[in-house]
Amino acid sequence: MDKIVILTGAGLSAESGLGTFRDEGGLWAQHRIEDVATPQGFARNPALVHGFYNARRAQSLQATPNAAHHALAKLQNSGKAEVILVTQNVDGLHEKAGSTAIHMHGQLDSALCAACTHRWPAPLEMDGSTLCPHCQTPNARPDIVWFGEIPYHMDEIADHLATCTLFASIGTSGQVYPAAGFVQEALYAGAETVELNLNATDISRAFHQHHIGPASQIVPDWVATLL
């Protein structure tokens, strides 16, 4: 059976109302990444970071999957191939659409204890007084991989890339590593590669095929060709 590894990024969820890093007027535009998405920023001002992720968590809970999420769920559940979804997104929309995904950058609906590494379902509102249910210390943080931290599940992802026959990158900027290097790993494994994005990226030349346009249009069309 063929193995398809699909990397998804913020561009997949943009049409569900969840902004990318570069959207004007969005949550990210109101803050410096250094202040809200780094361990140093959290150490300096945990209240600011908690407030930022509380807002993102509330926003994601209200969001619904778009046609691209549903198409990928249809592909994964079709049985036509082994489909591994690897996502940089933390919004949970893959799961809402009926998919199973490897979350390399964490999840908004999860909390992490910085003291004992225990994880639990995040409450809608977290702050500096939120206690870890395991060690009872106020060391709760969003279970999000920040800039400067190592993404989750990298060994598992590498194993899938080394054995895939098709690699697809959907809605990613091609600027954030290690994810931007996944296409090269897939090429080394002899896989076909396809990029689906709103625009060309810095790594577009590494792909055999390109589909340009809104994810809600090009992803269902591409999935239809596979089914």
Automatic annotation (TrEMBL):
Enzyme class, first EC level, given as a word: transferase
Reactions performed catalytically: N(6)-succinyl-L-lysyl-[protein] + NAD(+) + H2O = 2''-O-succinyl-ADP-D-ribose + nicotinamide + L-lysyl-[protein]; N(6)-acetyl-L-lysyl-[protein] + NAD(+) + H2O = 2''-O-acetyl-ADP-D-ribose + nicotinamide + L-lysyl-[protein]
Domain Deacetylase sirtuin-type: 1-227
GO CC annotation terms, alphabetical: cytoplasm
Location in the cell: Cytoplasm
Known cofactor(s): Zn(2+)
Positions of the catalytic residues: H105 (proton acceptor)
Entry superkingdom: Bacteria
Cofactor note: Binds 1 zinc ion per subunit.
Ligand binding (substrate): Y53, R56
Sequence positions that bind Zn(2+): C113, C116, C132, C135
Binding site for NAD(+): 9-28, 88-91, 171-173, 197-199, 215
MF terms in GO: histone deacetylase activity, NAD-dependent; NAD+ binding; protein-malonyllysine demalonylase activity; protein-succinyllysine desuccinylase activity; zinc ion binding
CDD domains noted in UniProt: SIRT5_Af1_CobB
EC number: 2.3.1.286
SUPFAM superfamilies: DHS-like NAD/FAD-binding domain
InterPro entries in alphabetical order: DHS-like_NAD/FAD-binding_dom, NAD-dep_sirtuin_deacylases, Sirtuin, Sirtuin_cat_small_dom_sf, Sirtuin_class_III, Ssirtuin_cat_dom
This protein's record includes keyword Metal-binding: yes
PANTHER family recorded: NAD-DEPENDENT PROTEIN DEACYLASE (PTHR11085:SF4), NAD-DEPENDENT PROTEIN DEACYLASE SIRTUIN-5, MITOCHONDRIAL-RELATED (PTHR11085)
Function in brief: NAD-dependent lysine deacetylase and desuccinylase that specifically removes acetyl and succinyl groups on target proteins. Modulates the activities of several proteins which are inactive in their acylated form.
Protein name in the entry: NAD-dependent protein deacylase
